[in-house]
């Protein structure tokens, strides 16, 4: 039997100190009750008391034998010591890097340990666990635990999403899972692909990530999306417009553009909209339009931040159009092209770029409508 013992965090201001999570986030933990009992990860330190109370209730008088630590980031590991303080005979199951990190996060902490290697097995009775190492999905110590009895993969951060479990997300799973993926795991596409090479050998009906809902069969759509995302392929033949505008003239340009786009589009004001939604949009769609101004002889700061965020996440395989605005000595277009060439892979830059000098001219309007036609193809 498996019981949920995790928590919903609706108090958090910023996840990982940077992601807005208006509907909170869950830190998932499970209790596998068999002849032996295993706790699957813990929760953020602010919820340790709630977690321990959930655990005690689920144990119903029994004691846990193992704590499986699939991921050492503190949103899942910070309550490890409190758990061991309460149940000192529990054995922590992890790999070499797990234990190194436990020593770093909890200096001087002593505990019983079971060191596992890739593919090692641990039987709880009917539930037979095996350990699949998934380094850099999202930290180096990450491993996933497969329970062959339930055909369940405890997938660490992979397949997680923002949003507390008491939030019935009207957008479904993909939207906030995608923002989570490209915000947090996006840099590690190769590592996710390495994981996928191991998955076909296991019979899978359930995925229990550390954040967000349990995913149940058919799992094909979740796996299809993760495969696309981790290969850096566009998911949709659609357009993302990312812009900055100091006095509204560049905004006028992108408004005219969007009004003439006939396919799906997203548009983000990089100074005002959720930055990570914009990153998500850049990865989701095939086309990216960058519209910005020259500022202090460089690229406007919010746009430069955006370009760096894409670079950090391995941005590639897209078509980019550029609209620049500069009242004197415009530089943004030239600098963005250089940035793209030096930092992104396999990008087609739409040859016809648009330079606005302060406000839109009739010629600029014509160019923007032509750009829309090119994006609509
Ligand atoms: Fe949810 Fe990488 O921690």
UniProtKB/TrEMBL annotation:
GO terms for molecular function: electron transfer activity; FMN binding; metal ion binding; oxidoreductase activity. It comes from Anaeroplasma bactoclasticum. Residues 239-376 form the Flavodoxin-like domain. This is Flavorubredoxin. InterPro entries: Flavodoxin/NO_synth, Flavoprotein-like_sf, Metallo-B-lactamas, ODP_dom, RibonucZ/Hydroxyglut_hydro, Rubredoxin-O_OxRdtase. In the N-terminal section; belongs to the zinc metallo-hydrolase group 3 family. Gene3D superfamilies: 3.40.50.360, Ribonuclease Z/Hydroxyacylglutathione hydrolase-like. It comes from the Bacteria.
């Amino acid at each position: 039997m498996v019981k949920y013992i995790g928590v919903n965090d609706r108090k958090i201001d910023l996840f990982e100190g940077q992601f807005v999570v208006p509907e909170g986030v869950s830190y998932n933990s499970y209790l596998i009750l068999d002849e032996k009992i295993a706790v699957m990860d813990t929760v953020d330190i602010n919820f340790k008391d709630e977690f321990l109370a959930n655990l005690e209730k689920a144990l119903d008088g029994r004691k846990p034998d193992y704590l499986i630590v699939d991921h050492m980031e503190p949103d899942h590991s910070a309550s490890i010591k409190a758990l061991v303080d309460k149940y000192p005979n529990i054995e922590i199951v992890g790999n070499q890097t797990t234990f190194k990190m436990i020593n770093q996060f909890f200096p001087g902490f002593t505990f019983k340990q079971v060191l596992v290697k890739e593919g090692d097995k641990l039987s709880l009775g009917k539930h037979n666990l095996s350990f699949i190492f998934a380094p850099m999905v999202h930290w180096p110590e990450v491993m996933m635990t497969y329970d062959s009895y339930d055909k369940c993969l405890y997938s660490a951060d992979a397949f997680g999403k923002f949003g507390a479990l008491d939030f019935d997300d009207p957008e479904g799973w993909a939207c906030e899972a995608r923002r989570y993926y490209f915000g947090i795991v996006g840099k590690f596409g190769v590592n996710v692909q390495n994981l996928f090479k191991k998955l076909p050998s296991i019979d899978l009906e359930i995925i229990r990530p550390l954040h967000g809902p349990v995913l149940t069969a058919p799992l094909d759509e979740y796996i299809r999306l993760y495969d696309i995302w981790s290969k850096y392929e566009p998911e949709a033949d659609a357009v993302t417009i990312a812009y900055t505008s100091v006095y509204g003239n560049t905004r006028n340009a992108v408004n005219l553009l969007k009004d003439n786009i006939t396919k799906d589009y997203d548009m983000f004001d990089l100074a005002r909209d959720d930055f990570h939604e914009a990153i998500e949009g850049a990865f989701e769609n095939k086309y990216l339009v960058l519209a910005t101004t020259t500022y202090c002889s460089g690229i406007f700061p919010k746009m430069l931040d955006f370009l760096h965020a894409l670079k950090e996440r391995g941005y590639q395989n897209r078509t980019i159009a550029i609209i620049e605005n500069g009242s004197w000595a415009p530089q943004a277009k030239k600098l963005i092209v250089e940035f793209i060439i030096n930092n992104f892979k396999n990008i087609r830059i739409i040859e016809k770029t648009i330079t606005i000098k302060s406000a839109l001219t009739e010629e600029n309007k014509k160019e923007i409508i032509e750009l829309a036609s090119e994006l609509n193809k």
